[in-house]
Task: inverse folding
C-alpha cells in the first residue's frame, strides 16, 4: 500500500452517489482519494495523519452552481461561510462576469457593498481582463480555498457587443457574441447564463438566445437561466427555457427554481410536472434551489427593466417626466416584466444593502414603512434611495412558500445552490445585512430538512449537493468519494449540523461541519479555517487541452 497523506477512520461513509451509507475508512494521497475500505483495513503506519471520524459522516465536498463570490473572493480568498458549510467548489456567472472586457463592455469596478474592501489594484487588474479566463486565473494567483469555475454571463456578452441597447442585435453584433462565446467555451466556461429579469439580459428575445446557445452546442455547454418570470408568467418562462434547450439542442439548467408571490404558489406543482414530463420526452432539463423562503436581489427589481435602457437608470429616475412613467409602470404593471413589489406588496420588500451613512436608518425596514417615513409613495421612495446610493441596493423579497420548498427538495432533478457569496462575519457584518443563504444553505438542508423534518434522506441530500452537480457540469473526477477522484472531502456531525444565520441576524457561521479538504489539503480543521488556499480552476468540457 502506498504512503497515505491522510487516513480518515471510523466514519459513516456517504459517497455522494445516492447509495446507502456504510462504515469505512477513506485514504487521501496528495490531491486524490487513494482508497476507500472497510474499517481497519488500511494500515495506519503508512499514514502521515490519522483522523478519527467516529460518530461523524464523511462525504464529498459540496458544489455551489450559483455562487456570487466574484467580489468576495477578491476581498478574502478563504470563502469562510461556504467552506464552513462544506462547499469545496463554487461556480459563478449568473448573468454577468467580470470578463471578457472589450467592445462596448465597461471595465469599471462594479458598485457593491464589498467594493470598499477591495485593494485598489483590483480595479487595474479588472481593466486588463480581456479574456474570459483572465479573472479566474487572477483569483488562483491570489489564492482561494474553494475550486472555482464559471459560466459566461449573458448580460456581459450582450454588453460586450451592444452595450445597454434595448433592441435586437445586428448581424455584426450577433457575430461578435458568437465569437466571444466560442472563445469563452475554449477557455473553460460551462455555458452561457442569461438572467432574464435583469438588463441587458432581459432585452434578449428567445430567438437571439437560441442562436447564442447553438454557438456553444459544439462545446457541450449548458444553457443556464434565471427564468424571464418566476411569478405571474412562471409557466411561460419555463416554456421559453425548454424551447431554447430543445431548439438549440443543449441541456437546460434553471437557477433557483421558485414560484414567487402568494398568488403563484399553486403553480409550482404544474412546473414540477412539466419538468418531469419534458425529461420523459428527452429534454435535458434540471434545476437548483436554495433552502430559504425569501429571495434576494436588487431594489432595482421594483422598477421596469426599460428604466435602465441605455445604461441611464440613475439619469432617468432624476428626470421628472421619466419618473412619472416609471412610477406608473411600478404601481400598475401590465405583465411584461417581473414586478417584484407587485408580488409581495411594499410591506414584503426589505432593502438592506445601503452604503451611505445617511441611509443606514432604512436598513431592514419594509419599503412601505420607509416610504411613510419619507412622506412619499413607495415607488418614489425606491427611486429616491436608488438615486442617493447609485447602486442596486441588495433587498429581500418574501415571496416563497415553505410547502413548495419541501416538495421541490424531493424531486430527483433538483440540486442545491446558494445564490450568494462566501463571507466572513468579521468583515462582512460591518457592511450591512446579507441574505442568510450565504451562511446556511447546505447546513440548513442537512439540519432542518434531513435530520429534523426528514423531507429527504441523508444520502439523497448529499447527492443533490455533490455528484449531481458535478455530473451536470461534466466534472467527471469530483463529487464522489471514489478512488482516483480529487480529494474534496467533508466530515460533519449529523446530530449537530445546522444553520444559525437569520434574516435579522445573518452574519453567523453554520455549525456541525468539522473538517474540510480541497484537493487533498485541509482548509477547515476542528471547526476553524486553516488559511490554506488550494483551490483550482474547474472547467467545462469545451476547454481546450
Result:
Amino acid at each position: 500500500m502506498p504512503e497515505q497523506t491522510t487516513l480518515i477512520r471510523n466514519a459513516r461513509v456517504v459517497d455522494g452517489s445516492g447509495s446507502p451509507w456504510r462504515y469505512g475508512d477513506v485514504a487521501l494521497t496528495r490531491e486524490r482519494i487513494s482508497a476507500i475500505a472497510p474499517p481497519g483495513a488500511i494500515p495506519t503506519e503508512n499514514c502521515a495523519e490519522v483522523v478519527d471520524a467516529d460518530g461523524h459522516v464523511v462525504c464529498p465536498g459540496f458544489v455551489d452552481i450559483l455562487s456570487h463570490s466574484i467580489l468576495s473572493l477578491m476581498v478574502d480568498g478563504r470563502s469562510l461561510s461556504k467552506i464552513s458549510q462544506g462547499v469545496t467548489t463554487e461556480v459563478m456567472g449568473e448573468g454577468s462576469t467580470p470578463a471578457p472586457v472589450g467592445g462596448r463592455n465597461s471595465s469599471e469596478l462594479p458598485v457593491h457593498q464589498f467594493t470598499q474592501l477591495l485593494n485598489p489594484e483590483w480595479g487595474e487588474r479588472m481593466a486588463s481582463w480581456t479574456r474570459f479566463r483572465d479573472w479566474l486565473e487572477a483569483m488562483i494567483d491570489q489564492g482561494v480555498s474553494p475550486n472555482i469555475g464559471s459560466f459566461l454571463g449573458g448580460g456581459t456578452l450582450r454588453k460586450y457587443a451592444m452595450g445597454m441597447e434595448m433592441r435586437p442585435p445586428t448581424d455584426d453584433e450577433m457575430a461578435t457574441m458568437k465569437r466571444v462565446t466560442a472563445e469563452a467555451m475554449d477557455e473553460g466556461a460551462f455555458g452561457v447564463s442569461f438572467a432574464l429579469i435583469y438588463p441587458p439580459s432581459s432585452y434578449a428575445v428567445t430567438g437571439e438566445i437560441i442562436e447564442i446557445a447553438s454557438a456553444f452546442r459544439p462545446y457541450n455547454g449548458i444553457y443556464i437561466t434565471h427564468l424571464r418570470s418566476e411569478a405571474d408568467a412562471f409557466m411561460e418562462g419555463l416554456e421559453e427555457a425548454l424551447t431554447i434547450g430543445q431548439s438549440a439542442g443543449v441541456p437546460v439548467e434553471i437557477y433557483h427554481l421558485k414560484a414567487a408571490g402568494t398568488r403563484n404558489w399553486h403553480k409550482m406543482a404544474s412546473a414540477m410536472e412539466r419538468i418531469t414530463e419534458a425529461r420523459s420526452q428527452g429534454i435535458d432539463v434540471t434545476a437548483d434551489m436554495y433552502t430559504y423562503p425569501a429571495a434576494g436581489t436588487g431594489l432595482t427589481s421594483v422598477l421596469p427593466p426599460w428604466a435602465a435602457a441605455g445604461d441611464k437608470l440613475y439619469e432617468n429616475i432624476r428626470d421628472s417626466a421619466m419618473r412619472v412613467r416609471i412610477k406608473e409602470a411600478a404601481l400598475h404593471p401590465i405583465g411584461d416584466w417581473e414586478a417584484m413589489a407587485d408580488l409581495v406588496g411594499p410591506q414584503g420588500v426589505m432593502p438592506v444593502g445601503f452604503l451611505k451613512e445617511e441611509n443606514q436608518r432604512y436598513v431592514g425596514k419594509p419599503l412601505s414603512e420607509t416610504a411613510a417615513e419619507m412622506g412619499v409613495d413607495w415607488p418614489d421612495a425606491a427611486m429616491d434611495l436608488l438615486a442617493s446610493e447609485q447602486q442596486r441596493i441588495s433587498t429581500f423579497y418574501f415571496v416563497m412558500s415553505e410547502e413548495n420548498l419541501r416538495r421541490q427538495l424531493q424531486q430527483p432533478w433538483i440540486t442545491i445552490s446558494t445564490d450568494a457569496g462566501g463571507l466572513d462575519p468579521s468583515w462582512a457584518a460591518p457592511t450591512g445585512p446579507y441574505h442568510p443563504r450565504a451562511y446556511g444553505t447546505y447546513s440548513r438542508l442537512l439540519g432542518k430538512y434531513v435530520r429534523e423534518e426528514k423531507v429527504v434522506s441523508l444520502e439523497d441530500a448529499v447527492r443533490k449537493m455533490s455528484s449531481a452537480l458535478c455530473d451536470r457540469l461534466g466534472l467527471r473526477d469530483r463529487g464522489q468519494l471514489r478512488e482516483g477522484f480529487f480529494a474534496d472531502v467533508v466530515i460533519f456531525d449529523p446530530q449537530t449540523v445546522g444553520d444559525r444565520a437569520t434574516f435579522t441576524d445573518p452574519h453567523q457561521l453554520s455549525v456541525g461541519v468539522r473538517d474540510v479538504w480541497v484537493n487533498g489539503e485541509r482548509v477547515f480543521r476542528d471547526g476553524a479555517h486553516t488559511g490554506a488556499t488550494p483551490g483550482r480552476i474547474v472547467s467545462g468540457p469545451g476547454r481546450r487541452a
